[in-house]
Amino acid sequence: MKTRENTVSAHSLAEAGRPIxxxxxxxxxxxxxxxxxxxxxxxxxxxxxxxxxxxxxxIRGHAGQPSTLLLKKSLKQQYPSANVSNMELRRVVLVAxxxxxxxxxxxxxxxxxxxxxxxxxxxxxxxxxxPRSFDRIGFRNPSNNSRGPWQVNLKGNLIVRKxxxxxxxxxxxxxxxxxxxxxxxxxxxx
Length: 190
What we know:
Order of helices and strands: HEEHEEEEEEE
CATH architecture of the largest domain: Sandwich
CATH topology of the largest domain: Jelly Rolls
Low-confidence stretches: 6-11, 39-43, 183-190
Number of domains: 2
Helix content: 25-40%
Mean pLDDT: 78
């Protein structure tokens, strides 16, 4: 036989259970929605920038032959944990200057190459370290894929400060992307 005390406590438990059930249902609904919206990001590749520092290296070709910057090799040296085999090259920005303003640069990926682009410069600013004295030359990947070598062919007497690689990394999900800290002020602007 039920007493009034038991009825009251059962009634108060039922009232207390409603918000709990509602909270559990809401929580499960939110978790389900998050799974639906975050699941595609697991398969989507993350876009990353790698800054290859060349420390204002002076580079010149010999006997009319261009000098070559080996980008994959430099990427492996400066970022040993980077998995180059899972990366697709999207864009390259060369930060350099030529002594007489007649330098040239060309991106070569596998068997394809971009047209040669002019690298600006002036004899008075050639030895200066100021960022504004450097020219920024942008290239898009000329190849359909990123297999094979990634190279920048340079003609003329040039000083190369850095090369920025924009790649699509197919090995890591987007939501696990690391935040990289670059030396210098160049990480945010091109």
